Amino acid sequence: MLNRILGALARAALVVVMIATPAIMLNTVSSDSEQVVALIALFAAALTFFEYVSAYPGLIEFRDAPPFNRVRFASLFVTVLLLTIICRGIAHPTIISEFVTAVGALIGYALDFPYSPVRLVVLSLPPETPQHQVNLVRVAAGMSYLISLVSLCVFLVALRVGHWPSKHGSFNVWVNLPTFDPTAGGDVVSRLRRDARVNIVIGFLLPFLMPAVIQSASNLFGGVHTENHHSLIWTVAAWAFLPSSLFMRGIAMGRVADMIENRRRQTYASADIEHLVA
Questions:
Q1: Burial class of residue 114, CB neighbours in 10 A (0-12, 13-18, 19+)
Q2: Where are the transmembrane segments (predicted)?
Q3: Cα 266 to the center of its chain, rounded Å
């Protein structure tokens, strides 16, 4: 119980650090924005603590099946941190900020080809956006997209090398998939594979659909203000994180479906052997 409490406290503290990083490192955040960030950080920390300190399922999926959530959190944390370093480097350049900006610019310009997600993000900006702001968005999009691809590759390697999730003992569907009801009807394996395909398809389409949604919302509620680096960081981070997160969720659910099917085959084979021996 003590280890569970300490682990929940550590996760809650990491969530607070991640949410507060842009507000702490950027000097352009107002006092009202700081209060909103503090409130959101405390709420997210409380949610994380009570989720991981409880032995019963809540809202977080694959809670007891590492490293699924660890890879996703690390991906989002690194994305927010590097984008904050890039934005801070505009007013306070350092060797680290210049290096991160150069890497983001290299990836951004390499991925800025027709119909690419990065090109669609750039095209979603208002026509009157200054060129230096367009370049900043391109750099941020390139860096975020690179981190999302790397995190996806890391997760695939963890699945292959670590034999996830069977390596961590028995897999409790009730705890790790709280939003999935095995008794809702139909074969569990078929439903898991269907949900896995849906998540992968949505994860593939989301980088292309989100810029269109942002542009439509800009026409209704006003253009995107790229001068606000705080909102730019979280918008670009969400644009890159959500698709990769859905990809990981789809791959994980497909892996769980394969595990259940293999367990069924072993059970049926054991029953047939016992029947023959008897």
A1: exposed
A2: 6-29, 36-53, 73-91, 136-159, 200-221, 233-256
A3: 34
